[in-house]
TrEMBL record:
Keywords: Cell membrane, Disulfide bond, Endoplasmic reticulum, G-protein coupled receptor, Glycoprotein, Membrane, Receptor, Transducer, Transmembrane, Transmembrane helix. It is found in: Cell membrane; Endoplasmic reticulum membrane. The chain crosses the membrane at residues 25-47, 59-81, 101-122, 134-160, 192-214, 248-268, 288-310. It is a multi-pass membrane protein. Residues 39-303 form the G-protein coupled receptors family 1 profile domain. GO terms for cellular component: endoplasmic reticulum membrane; plasma membrane. The gene is Taar1. This is Trace amine-associated receptor 1. The keyword tRNA-binding does not apply. The keyword Hydrolase does not apply.
Amino acid sequence: MSVCHEVTNTSCVASRWPRDVRAPLYSLMALIILTTLAGNLIVIISISHFRQLHSPTNWLLHSMAMVDFLLGFLVMPYSMVRSVEHCWYFGEIFCKIHTSADIMLSSASIFHLSFISIDRYYAVCDPLRYKVRMSLLVSAVMIFISWSVPAVFAFGMIFLELNFKGAEEMYLEHIHCRSGCSIFFSKITGVLVFMISFYIPGSIMLCVYCRIYFVAKEQARSIKGTNPNLQTGLEVKAGVLQSKERKAMTTLGIVLGVFLICWCPFFVSMVADPFLNYTIPLALNEALIWFGYLNSTFNPMVYAFFYPWFRKALKIILLGKIFQKDSSRCKIFLDSSP
């Protein structure tokens, strides 16, 4: 039996996977990391560089891309080694920093998704007052909350060791081992993390997107039921609205589907593990964490790749036109809003 530390009786057990299993795992995780970094970096560059994209909505997207980029840059590489080797070679203090940053950035990404859903709600359900409701100041407040609340919650909980509250003996006797860095939660803190990092923002997303769906349906129905004398022009408008509605519903379905598929298994496992006496295997926990990370990989694809302005910005960047004089003033889209 291979161990992680020279003091074998208190050491964590190292992975027993042979090289021909480890190599594909490292390759897959490295691909996820590189895709996460590349996709989110393109979003950051696009919104930062092109002045036409400097809107409250896009600054929310920019901030979320920053969170996801940092998750891929600061957290995922160390998680990759831990997941494959089942050992932690970077010291106890850095384990706390890594765990805190992991919880913070993952939660911040989910917070951003929740606020973006609120932004989309006002855009669809109250378009006349949208620019007043979603000002640059409101966007800045949303960004501040999305960063600060997860940071205080994550670093405070880990460095004050509140995650062990009520399960200290269980952790020391059955979970703790040298050269390990597993994310541990007691029953109380597990439920708290589940509520703050997943259930509350996830419920907001679900309720808001359901509301958007019904409002869009009602708008299309009201146009169809107007004065027959105005039917010719309104039929065209209704057709355009129905087309936009279908596209919006497809996008919303993808947004919710990706979010739930990526994060739901991990959070359900996390909150259930303390009530199952921590019997969920380490390998399964690590796999579910990486499923959650995939949400940060897919975010730029779901939220940016679906926008025509992003495709044009991407083309300008890839062709090197971004280095031309006054490229920041390029017309990325024709309407008043992307």
